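Technical appendix A lists one of the benchmark inputs used to test multi-chain prediction within the project. The record comprises two sequence entries:
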Amino acid sequence: MDIIVSNLSKGFGAKHVLTDFSAIFPEHEVTCLMGPSGCGKTTLLNILMGFLHQDSGTVSGIPKNKSAVFQEDRLCESFNAVSNVRLVCNRKVENKKIISHLERIGLIGSLNQPVSELSGGMKRRVAIVRAVLANSDVIFLDEPFKGLDVDTKKDVMQYIKSNKQDRTVIMVTHSIDEVEFMNGNLIVMEQKAEG
Amino acid sequence: MKDKTINKTKIEKLAAVLFALVVWHIVAIVVDNSMLLVTPAAVVKRMFNLLFEKDFLSAVGFSLIRIVAGFFIALATGSVLAVIAGRFRLAEIMFWPFIVAIKSVPVVSFIILCLIWLSSRTLSVFIAFLMVLPIVYTNMLEGIKSTDKKLLEMAQLYNVGWLKKLKYIYLPHLKPYVISACSISIGLSWKAGTAAEVIGIPEGSIGEKLYEAKVYFSSADLLSWTVVIIVVSILFEKLFLYLLKYFFERLESA
């Protein structure tokens, strides 16, 4: 089912972040949200993920099983990478599979360390594997490649592309290259005038 | 470098203890009255005698079991109440007057009041419980309230169950709050528990021994039993905190 957003408005006090925003996120496809900072991309994601409630408008077609890479990594810092991924996986996902995915994106040799000891880029990749391996029908990605160097970023984009299966992906990005690489539909959001 | 600093600190502390013992010895010599103050050497000598007295272990055991029981009951109750208060604001408001009352009422008032309600044998359990409860409750509630909301959102999005949330989010976050609450309250429970025993005088307790020392003006006995209380309290604190830290380490490596 497509995710359909109709006439969505959201404000914080006197500041209107989203005004009458409408969009369709086609099922099984990648849709990228672009726009200047403060135009409401993350607010929209937060509404779609169920963390914020819109002031007006409707959202339909959100599946029950969701996964996400947030703007922050949101990892359990004292646990290792495997445990962090294990946290969101069901019992069918074996540790062997988790380890192979983590190693696939370059986390070889760091699997037993608490994630607090990993670099920013490594943490980001743990968060990405967590989102990919979770049992979900939609993946929300909020600037998922932030903090990754060019080569790692390409590798991780390829990893997401090959492992997204038939899930719907909604990705916030500032880079048109990322949109092209992911073969994504593009929605450009505009900065709303104050008032 | 770090090891050197630790060794230096240990040597400094040892020197400070030796200095305090010398001061104590000099004051005892100057006072020259064994009823008022005995020398550290006399206390050590009396302690060795105490160790071989037939009711030494039973007195230590009597007080240890009761004070430790009070501590554990308070740890469990304080944790449960903090979880409820963290979940329901109304509960936090309803608990507030009780916690403030327990914190502010002088312990001796509770002891006398409890002597009317309870037998002197169970008094120290209840008094240790009352001393520990507000500390555990306050620390745990603060910890629960400051749990990372963003991690909880993540858990909500991924439909993480409550047991996993407890293991991965709440317990690691609460670790410093629990350790701090326990390290503060163990010492307090011993102070208040033995004070309650001195007033209630339950037969066969350390408190009774302290009371007898007062009746017979035996400062050697008084100071020896005091040293016993300090040693048992510190040993229990070290052992419990070691087990607690071990539990958290195992949790995080599992």
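The CA atoms of residues 2 and 27 of chain A lie 5 Å apart. The mean pLDDT of chain A is 91. Comparable benchmark entries are summarised in Table A2.
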